[in-house]
Amino acid sequence: MTVTDLVSYEDALASYDPVMGLEVHVELGTKTKMFCGCSTELKQDANSQTCPVCLGLPGALPVVNEIGVESAIKIGLALNCEIADWCRFARKNYFYPDMPKNFQTSQYDEPIAFNGYLDVQLEDGEIFRVQIERAHMEEDTGKSTHVGGATGRIHGASHSLLDYNRAGIPLIEIVTKPIEGAGARAPEVAKAYVAELRELIKALGVSDARMEMGQMRCDVNLSLRPNGTETFGTRSETKNVNSLRSVERAARFEIQRHAAVLSSGGTIVQETRHFHEEDGSTTAGRIKDNAEDYRYFPEPDLVPVAPSRDWVEELRKGLPELPRLRRARLKEEWGVSEHDMQSILNAGAVDLIVATIEAGAPADQARKWWMGELARNANETGRGLDELPITPEQVARVAALVAKGDLNDKLARQVIEGVLAGEGDPDTVVEKRGLKVVSDEGALSTAVDEAIAGNAAIADKIRGGKVAAAGALVGAVMKATRGQADAARVRELILEKLGVEG
Hints:
By secondary structure, this protein is of the alpha+beta class. The chain folds into 3 domains: 3-314, no CATH class; 323-433, no CATH class; 441-497, Arc Repressor Mutant, subunit A. Helices cover 38% and strands 19% of the residues. The strands form 3 sheets. The protein has a 9-stranded mixed beta sheet. It has a 3-stranded antiparallel beta sheet with strand order 4-3-14, with no helix packed on it. Strand 12 (271-276) and strand 13 form a beta hairpin. Helix 8 (350-358) packs across helix 11, helix 11 (392-404) packs antiparallel against helix 12 (409-420) and helix 12 crosses helix 13 (426-433). The radius of gyration is 29 Å and the shape is elongated. The model has no long low-confidence stretch (mean pLDDT 89).
């Protein structure tokens, strides 16, 4: 089904009620893998970080990573989950071309954390509670690179390359209960949930949660049911969606696709789907297995995990300030409205502004530059704010140069432009481009004299009491100095020379 075959979103919601389930996989930031001592360092030579355990060689025995268990408990606590007194691992069996032992060590009916919730804030300030079914521990698979095809997928490829460096990296899978009642806002709820979860994971310090690097990815399960009914429809599962925008787009596309199939008398196939960034569409993957098809059974080589209550409570006391509470505090400290705080959040600027303030910038200046000039550049280049090649420390330095009087706002924007272009740090850009404010009294006085002489009629108006006309002379001086004069001082000099009280 192509994008043009879809029914409109409005028509889909007029007849059907969407139900979602979101499964988010988070790669933990441990130094070693979940069941062996191999390094998890990124960007190493293929298959250089492997051992008999993560390669699944006969006789190799796994050992649980304690930090991985600790991270799982922290996530569970932050998600308001119950933490199991006793749980164990299971083998999930099916054909894994990129898992050498041909099963995944995971948790099935005995997860370490279960029955929680996460409150998320939508763009208009509404709070929507997403119920959490479970958070369980497992390991990642290796990486397949399909060569020779046009799409980078296995279909049409001539051969595949396998890298097992990622096999065994600790994962936490967070599974929601069915998300009902979102209606037309279901895609927005999906995006807001994953965004809030990402902030939570980063705040806990258990993962960098960089979606573009695969450290956090979301499977979007979606089904439709006729309005006014209770029975769930057949679901599809769009796999490994790796950006907030794409989560929203995938949910929206699937709502429209399901509605088109159902409205034409067709049947939804329970299957996995691939998401395509270029047009926001999904295409069929494989028929989706049910739990019984995975032939789960308890992992015989690992002892059960039984975290003591004292340990759990110690971890609970050590949890950092959680994102929603932190945002409420920052909103108060910065003196911004709910709308402005939501805009900052939507732009992904909270941490950047905090870091800029910590680097010495006043709060209002940090917000001004990130939400103004830098947000504009990010929008124009299609990047996130955190992807721009400028640091909070550099933004703070620009703000300091403005406060010192070495730059005005116009020049500061040029400095930021230079930093983004890779010309160096702010001081280097100022030096290379010759962007300092002209504050030399002699040079300013000469420029003012020339502006008055060249605009005699305007000067006469000012002498006659029309002080507002001074703006035209200020503009002439700024033009003559290429915007590098101190505008406030220029105005003072104009009025002094014309004998007019400011």
